C-alpha cells in the first residue's frame, strides 16, 4: 500500500537505494536535493534531512512496503521558487514508473493543499515529459502557459 511519509534519518537505506537508481547527475524532482547537499553518507544525509525540516512548505517520500519510490513537495504559497518551478514538484524512481505512483501522490497532495485552504497550485514540467503532463492533467491540471521558448509548461490545478 502506498503512503506519504515525512523524510527521516531512519529511512536512509531505503532512500539511498532510490537515490542511486536515478544515477549520477540526474535531477530527482520531489526530493529537494540542492547542489551543496552531500547525501551519500549518513552524516551528510542527516544534515540534509535537518535542512529539509526547516524549509518552507512540506515534503514527503512516497513509500510502499518500506521501499522509497519517490518524493513529492508542496511549496509554500509565497515561496519564491514557485514562480519558476511551481508549487508542487515530484519524481518517481525509474523502476516504479508506469504504475500510477505519481498520480496517486499528486492526488494526495492536491487534497492536502485544498484542506489547507489553498485556491490553486501550479506545476511546471518539461514540454517533452508526456508522462508528467498526463499525471498533472489526470489530477485536474490545465495548461496555463508555455515557458522557456517551449521547453517547459506551467499548469494550474484549481482547488
Automatic annotation (TrEMBL):
Known Pfam families for this protein? Acetyltransf_1
Q: Which GO terms describe its molecular function?
A: acyltransferase activity, transferring groups other than amino-acyl groups
Q: Where is the N-acetyltransferase domain?
A: 17-159
* Xref: CDD domains: NAT_SF
Which domain of life does the protein's organism represent?
Answer: Bacteria
Q: Which PANTHER family match?
A: ACETYLTRANSFERASE
Indicate what this protein is called per its UniProt record: Acetyltransferase
Q: Which organism is it from?
A: Flexivirga endophytica
Specify the taxonomic lineage. Answer: Bacteria, Bacillati, Actinomycetota, Actinomycetes, Micrococcales
